[in-house]
């Protein structure tokens, strides 16, 4: 049976409880901090990275995702969509136009063939914490814990801060995966119960940052400086060919890492794990404009950091 996303939204919005919109609880994660972790992914992001591997995180509320491969062409969804966002191709498979969608979810309820899914659901702090504590024995045995990622968790700061607070009461190691793009008061509130911040640095030049990602980077760098010494920090740099593949800038980021007392600096060459998601969300596939590094280029980067490999990690989170 389908979860009634809209009913839950209505009930919880009227309840007065602190809630958040979540789109995934990923167990046994080894990419988002030390040890085995559960990562809770929340919706909403102010940045628009063309290489985003979680494009379902960007829209701040629930939305639909279509899987044309499951579509039998029954046409039930077309009958309920009032905005003209759905059509059929020549093989009677569903085609989705995000620009016209009002996120009403009517087609999700109409489809009986798992060709339309709902992404994101509102949950209470209690529900989130109960889910996150399920794997507590694994956290204790592996030095792991819980990471909250997104999207940008700072957008849902009240909910995220409450969840971190409850996890700390339960003795769980907590990590925040963030772009740092928020007011300092928000960063301060959320990081109060955070053991480790995975802090993204994508480019040091604010103009370039804005041109490609949609926002300037000053507030990100200011917040990072203010966080120094208050919690453990790992800097994480998604390395993207033609955007930030600049050794001199990389050296400056390593220098910045030392200045803010980051424990590690990670350079993570762009991957295409999220590429298949774009079509189902009705988004343009931005990966088409991106070019992967070749082996020779990757070797050059590895060589560059060889002498400081205890501090800079290249190629894995
Ligand atoms: S969610 Fe979007 S595509 Fe589906 S019925 Fe509503 S407007 Fe149409
Ligand atoms: S209701 Fe589902 S199976 Fe029927 S046309 Fe729409 S997407 Fe395809
Ligand atoms: S900051 Fe992260 S979640 Fe937001 S668009 Fe960029 S890659 Fe995606």
SSE layout:
Blueprint: H1 5-15, E1 19-29, E2 37-42, E3 63-66, H2 76-80, E4 86-88, E5 94-96, H3 106-110, E6 116-119, E7 121-124, H4 125-132, H5 136-142, E8 145-149, H6 157-169, E9 173-178, H7 184-191, E10 196-200, H8 206-213, H9 218-227, E11 232-239, H10 247-259, E12 264-269, H11 277-280, H12 295-305, E13 312-314
Parallel strand pairs: 2-8, 8-9, 9-10, 10-11, 11-12, 12-13
Antiparallel strand pairs: 1-2, 1-7, 3-6, 4-5
One iron/sulfur cluster is lined by residues 64, 80-81, 83, 85-86, 101-107.
Give the CA-based shape. globular
Please provide the count of β strands: 13
CATH class of the largest domain, anyone?
Alpha Beta
By CATH, the superfamily of the largest domain comes out as Aldolase class I
Number of helices: 12
CA(first)-CA(last) distance: 36 Å
Instruction: Give the second-level CATH assignment, the architecture of the largest domain.
Output: Alpha-Beta Barrel
Mean pLDDT over all positions: 95
Order of helices and strands: HEEEHEEHEEHHEHEHEHHEHEHHE
- Beta-strand percentage? 15-25%
Q: Which cofactor or ligand species appear?
A: iron/sulfur cluster
Radius of gyration: 21 Å
The proportion of residues forming helix, as a percent range, comes to: 25-40%
Keywords:
TIM Barrel; 2 domains; 21% strand; single chain; binds iron/sulfur cluster; nine-stranded mixed sheet; alpha/beta; two-stranded antiparallel sheet; 317 residues; Alpha-Beta Plaits
Question: Could you explain how this protein is built, in words?
Answer:
The chain is of the alpha/beta class. The chain has two domains: 23-43 and 127-314, Aldolase class I (TIM Barrel); 63-119, Alpha-Beta Plaits (2-Layer Sandwich), CATH 3.30.70. 32% of the residues lie in helices and 21% in strands. It has twelve helices and 13 strands. Strands 7-1-2-8-9-10-11-12-13 form a nine-stranded mixed beta sheet. β11, α10 and β12 (264-269) form a beta-alpha-beta unit. α6 packs parallel to α7. The two termini are 36 Å apart. The mean pLDDT is 95. Residues 64, 80-81, 83, 85-86, 101-107 line the site of one iron/sulfur cluster.
């Amino acid at each position: 049976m389908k979860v009634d996303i809209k009913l839950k939204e209505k009930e919880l919005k009227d309840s007065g409880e602190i809630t958040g919109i979540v789109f995934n609880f990923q167990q046994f994660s080894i990419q988002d901090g030390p040890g085995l972790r559960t990562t809770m992914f929340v919706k909403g992001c102010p940045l628009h990275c063309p290489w985003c591997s979680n494009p379902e995180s960007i829209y701040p509320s629930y939305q639909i995702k279509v899987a044309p491969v499951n579509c039998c062409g029954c046409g039930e969804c077309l009958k309920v969509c009032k905005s003209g966002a759905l059509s059929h191709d020549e093989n009677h498979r569903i085609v989705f136009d995000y620009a016209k969608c009002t996120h009403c979810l009517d087609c999700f309820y109409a489809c009986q063939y798992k060709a339309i899914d709902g992404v994101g659901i509102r949950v209470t702090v209690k529900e989130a914490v109960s889910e996150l504590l399920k794997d507590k024995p694994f956290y204790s045995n592996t030095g792991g814990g819980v990471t909250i990622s997104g999207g940008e968790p700072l957008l849902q700061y009240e909910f995220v801060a409450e969840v971190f607070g409850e996890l700390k009461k339960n003795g769980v190691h907590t990590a925040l995966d963030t772009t740092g793009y928020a007011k300092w008061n928000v960063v301060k509130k959320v990081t109060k119960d955070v053991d480790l911040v995975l802090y993204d640095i994508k480019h040091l030049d604010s103009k370039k940052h804005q041109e490609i990602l949609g926002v300037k980077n000053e507030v990100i760098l200011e917040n990072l400086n203010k966080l120094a010494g208050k919690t453990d920090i790992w800097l994480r740099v998604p390395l993207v060919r033609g955007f930030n593949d600049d050794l001199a800038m990389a050296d400056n980021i390593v220098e910045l890492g030392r200045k803010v007392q980051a424990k590690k600096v990670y350079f993570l060459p762009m991957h295409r794990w999220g590429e298949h998601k774009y079509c189902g969300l009705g988004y343009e596939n931005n990966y088409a404009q991106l070019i992967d590094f070749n082996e020779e280029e990757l070797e050059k980067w590895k060589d560059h950091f060889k002498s400081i490999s205890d501090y800079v990690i290249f190629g894995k989170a």
